[in-house]
Amino acid sequence: MSKQNSTATAGLKLNYKQIFLIGFGFLASSLAWSIYNSQVPLILEQRFQLSGVLIGTIMTIDNFFGVIFQPLVGAASDKTRTRVGRRLPWIIFGIPICALFFSLAPLQQSLRAFMGAIIVFNLVMSLWRSPVISLMPDVTARPLRSKANGVINMMGGIGSILAFFVGGILSDIRDDKFFAFFFASVLMMVALFILLQFVREPDSLAYREEHNIPIRNTLANRWAYQARAALADDPHAKDEEESVSTDGKKHSFAAFLNLPRAEKRSLLFLLLAVFSWFMGFNAIEAFFTIFATNTYGISGGSATMMLAGFSLTFLAFAIPAGILGQKIGRRRTILLGLLGICLLFLPILARPQQWLVQVLLMSGGICWAFVNINSLPMVLEFSSNRTVGTFTGYYYFFSFTSAIVSPILYGFLQDILKSHAYLFAFSIICFAFAFVFMLLVKHGDNLELAQKRIKETEA
Asked: d(Cα 121, Cα 127) in Å, to the nearest integer?
């Protein structure tokens, strides 16, 4: 099967340099969120003496904005047409505003001003996250998107590591933690410069050609021509004339409704799987330090370092997970990852020694890479090249909704059961539900499309 897949994708080659540079957008976003999540709660508690409930409520603002705006912006960016493309206008608008208000936030001495700054930051971040993620599939042929998504997530992981280490050092220079926030703002502007200098969407070429705007012989434009040719020759791409309805509904937020019934059913189960596995992941991310400190009597810092092992192995296996998804199929790779996570987390229910939990978590990071790296590219298999932003929005709607529901639901269960011991039981149940949902997904795998193309060629 992998041989057939490689035959069907012959001639397609990932532009690693371009994907690496696009990844700076995700690096800047991940770095900013990591600093936000680590430093804003401290400011709210130490400077403004807010209660834990209020701090927790404030920290969900980004998820609410993500649920509301990212699907809408994804669909809107699909319909945006300018000389610089569909996604870059949103990014050009969003990054400078985010950089400004992120730097201003720690300087505010009143709660009202501080909240105003972080609300603007959260709102505008939700306006350019989907477009910056959509840049990758806009320039990458379908069979290569898992591999490319591995590069993008690796860059995001680097951003988070920079936030924890460099941002952590910078936050101690001043009491108001200004330099950590300013560091993120500078990185956001550097990312914007890199995107403007080296990334051009294929759609920008079509716009310039239609309006007789000169196209300079730059590296960005040459890469855009190469990407357009690769997308045009992509044997897995859907026929644009068939996938875009005559009334234009395929361009709207209702693109899901225009899918064939069988594909619609598969996509729904896939998105439910996305929701379920992020439920399991977000519970661990939010409550592991509490679980570890109460179960093993270690410090919060030691518990954080245990969880960092999970993130480091995810980062190390991000690109290999994409390569595996290309070789054996994304659905099979995701199922393998979900099964692995469930089996690895089961021994933790018996409260083994701390070193064994660390080993199991690090191994779980590998399986999480198998799942996470291949999920967005699989969702995008249901889209046409004109609706990438819309389907990216669908993906983030379900993942951000789980980020809201999971901590609240598990926190409620923890209060009822009056124990911290059920964290991994809750997580395993969520991952098991995701596994069942993935078994019901019958369309959208890259191998399915490769086999279809081979049959058409042989006929």
From this structure: 10
Helix (H) or strand (E) holding 31: helix 16-46
144 in Cβ contact with 446 (< 8 Å): no
Residues 245-255: pLDDT tens digits?
434 444 445 67
Domain ranges in the chain? Answer: 12-230, 250-459
CATH label, 12-230, candidates 3.10.450.50, 3.20.20.80, 1.20.1250.20, 3.40.50.12780: 1.20.1250.20
Distances (CA, A) of 395 to 198, 372, 389, 399: 27, 11, 10, 6
Beta-carbon contacts of residue 337 (< 8 Å; ≥ 6 apart): 321, 367, 368, 369, 370, 371
**Whether 368 contacts 314, CB under 8 Å:** yes
Measured N-to-C along each axis, helices 388-417 and 423-439 cross at an angle, to the nearest 10 degrees, of 140
Topology of domain 250-459 in CATH is Growth Hormone; Chain: A; (1.20.1250)
Tokens of 348: 């933790």
Asked whether this chain's domains 12-230 and 250-459 adopt the same fold, the reply is yes
Whole-angstrom distance, CA of residue 34 vs CA of residue 87 = 24
Asked if 28 contacts 190 with a C-beta cutoff of 8 angstroms, the reply is yes
Residues of the chain with pLDDT under 50: 1-10, 238-252, 450, 453-459
Say how many C-beta atoms besides its own lie within 10 A of residue 78's C-beta: 30
**pLDDT per residue over 99-140, tens digit each?**
999 999 999 999 999 999 999 999 999 999 889 999 999 999
